[in-house]
Fold this protein.
Amino acid sequence: MRWTVKELTYRTAMRLPALHSALFRGLLASFHDVYGDLEPAAALTFLGSLDLPADTQYLAELRRVLAAGHKNHYRSPGAWDEALRSCS
């Protein structure tokens, strides 16, 4: 699904702290999904606004790939592996 379709839903979900964990999982899945599509700067802004535990699995890695401008795992296949190595 295109980012422009998801963005309004993500923006709405951000207003409810109880949905922050689900929103994180949605952003992470959007990065890894074959048809996933993220706008890296906007997704990074959303990610930074979420109230998540600091030790949330893959939080640092997702921040890293988004900060580097990657939209999707399949368009940048080595980016996730590099983030895993860098954040370990």
Q: What stands out?
A: Residues 10 and 23 are 7 Å apart (CA to CA). The chain has a mean pLDDT of 92.
